[in-house]
Amino acid sequence: MKRLRIGLPPLDQLTADSQVRFAWLDRGVVVEEGTDSLAHLSKARIAMDCFLHPRDSLLTSLELPPLPAAKAAAAVACAAQALILGPVEHMQVAHGPRESDGRVQVAWVSKAGLERLFALPLKLRGVYPAPYALPVGAAALDEGYLLTRDSLQQGAVHPLGQQALDLPLVDLPLVDMAQRWSGPTPNWGLHGRLSQPASGGWGRALGYLALATAIWTLGLNLYAARQVDEGQRLKALMSQQVRQAFPELPVVLNPLQQARQQLAARQSGAATDPGQRFSSLLQLVGSNLPFMVASVDSLSFEQGRLHLELLADSRNPTAQGDWQTALTQAGFSASRDEHGWSIGPVKAGAGDE
């Protein structure tokens, strides 16, 4: 797969018409190189590796102890404040991994310069300091700077005076112009935290709209599912309460409607089968007045009311619990006299004791 590499001019001079050096690589071998404008190269519509001008390639290495990734980033940012001339907030700081000797490569560049680059209609793969275009273990001269590549992660830029260009400053071999583009890129760069604006604004906007719609639809479905579950839970609770209040019902299909019908029938005295009414009332009393167990001497059922006569030594049993509320919810009331209790449907003017 062919890759395009670009050598950028100083970022403060960058425009779409800037003439830049480029190289096409195929499987790591330079197959074409030359000079062209960024506007013309952008027509290739291929992601390109951009290498900063040596003047913008600010590099150093720090010795750090083994640290988690988050703490390593904080340590690098803290150390960079002492190295950067000017507010560190205006700089994009990046660093490589910690190597076996404890050294961590650090680079920084002006955020304004990067934003100038990202504003151009280019498809970027990555942005790297100038030495990272070189093969590992090589050096090159570039416009008064000596570039060195010591390892996959480590590189350096040495400003040279004109009188020092002929001195053997490093032991690394100098490579020619074609070879200087053939090095492997590191696994970090200066493009990490800044995003390149999309050239197709409508396409990106539609993409965001589709994403927002998908998230909204997912949220709506989750909310609807929760509401359905809550509705089913409430319906089951209502059915249980209706079965407890009206045990004579063989099946509960519509809890609210059936409860209204049963209450209306009880309050109007419209009885169904007297035997059925007696058994259901007896079951209701036994469930809600357990304090009368073993205290009843006799009972009778007349005109829809259940009369319970208590044993002489149990005329005043302790009435515990919220039983009156349970009877009222079922449409009944209980009254007490000196002999026992009378339980029947609630009627206007009747009071509970």
List keywords for this structure.
disordered C terminus; 4-stranded antiparallel beta sheet; Nucleotidyltransferase, domain 5; rod-shaped; 15 strands; 353 residues; alpha+beta
What does this protein look like?
It is a single chain. By secondary structure, the protein is of the alpha+beta class. The protein has two domains: 2-198, Nucleotidyltransferase, domain 5; 255-345, no CATH class. Helices cover 30% and strands 25% of the residues. The protein has helices at residues 38-41, 69-81, 111-118, 201-245, 255-268, 274-288, 323-329, and strands spanning 2-7, 19-26, 29-37, 48-51, 58-63, 91-95, 103-110, 124-128, 138-142, 145-149, 155-159, 296-302, 305-310, 332-336, 340-345. Helix 4 packs parallel to helix 5 (255-268). The termini are far apart.
